[in-house]
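Hello K.,

You asked for the raw outputs rather than the summary table, so here they are, unedited. I folded two proteins back to back in the same session to keep the settings identical. This is the first:
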Amino acid sequence: MHGRLWARIAAGLWAVGIVVGTLGRASHVGQHLRTTGAGHIVAHVGVFAVLGALTAYGFGSSRYGRIALVVAVLLGTCAEVYESVAFHGAMEYADVATNVCGLLLGLGFAYWMERRRASSRT
């Protein structure tokens, strides 16, 4: 149980880091970050994959796990809405999609690791 508690705390701290990172950027920096390169996509997927894996491990497939997943999707969407408003640009729906793909990738990885660990015990 302690491992799951630490994963929940880590997921919360990671989400707070995403919020602080999104809100803390100066607008002149944010305007230059709106790119479409592979590094940009990898960063979005990577950040949200970690959040997805921590969420999956911390909450599992319980009702709270599903709520945490919805909150994570809303976090990714709200970050993109904020950037479009703060930097006076168009909404980048591709970034929202990569955020969701990252979450799903992290969830899948966590569930795969959990099943692998469970099968090694038997």
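The second followed immediately with the same parameters:
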Amino acid sequence: MKRFLVFVVMLTLPVFFTAAQDDGLGLTVGVELECPGINDEFALNVIPFLEYDTSFGDLDIWAWLGVSFGVVHDEDDFPVNLSAEFLPWYNLRLSSDSTLSIGVYGNLEYQISPSVDDALFFELEPRVKYNQSFDFGDLYGIIGLPVGLVYPYDDYDVSLGVKFTLGWASTFGLELELTPHFMFMPDGVDMYEGIELLISYEADSIYGELVVGIPNDMDYGGYHFDPGVTLSPHVEYRFARMAVYLGADIIGIGSSSDIEVDLKAGFKYSF
């Protein structure tokens, strides 16, 4: 497992070094403070991160790498979590108003904790996007096929899903997305996971978004799950090459369990 982690890091880091050598364009460094479950016991994670976002002709590349250090947790538990994401898009211009894009989203989570075994989650999601421009903005649709792998292996180690996204990007900074999720488990159990709504607005130096996750109640393995609604607001203020942001995840609204609130704040600088 440790060799696999080193291998992933060696593959990811050259992307950022390439950006730094190319006049630094597209490279962002930052740090985030995260307080998970503030309505329970206080905890604090410090997350330094690197982000790369640029284009080479018809190829768009986005990548993110961060390490979360649990500096305030249970007395004997200070977890470390490596996170990496990437999303390249290759854009095919079909006409002056329409574009077909092919991409693949990847997400890696590797957790090291003194109190439990190391855990690995990896997801790979091929995507196809079609965008059509109009006078009132862009309408687009995305189809994604996420494949997830969890380690250590158990009965639910591999999953396959499908996502359908419909979106509208206005000409005045407003963007809307609606995404239903479906999941197919290896034991033959198929389920509708839920739907996600994204509302974002950008004007000058201000950016804000609200993600509303409405998961589906489900009965599985003799248990009933009612996760409730999740609200995730995010506000960002940009000045010069810097930005500060605040965000939250409000989890379990309307469920039979207690509501959990996670807070985060961050600072980043773009070269």
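DSSP finds one helix and 17 strands in the chain.

Happy to rerun anything if the numbers look odd on your end.

Regards,
P.
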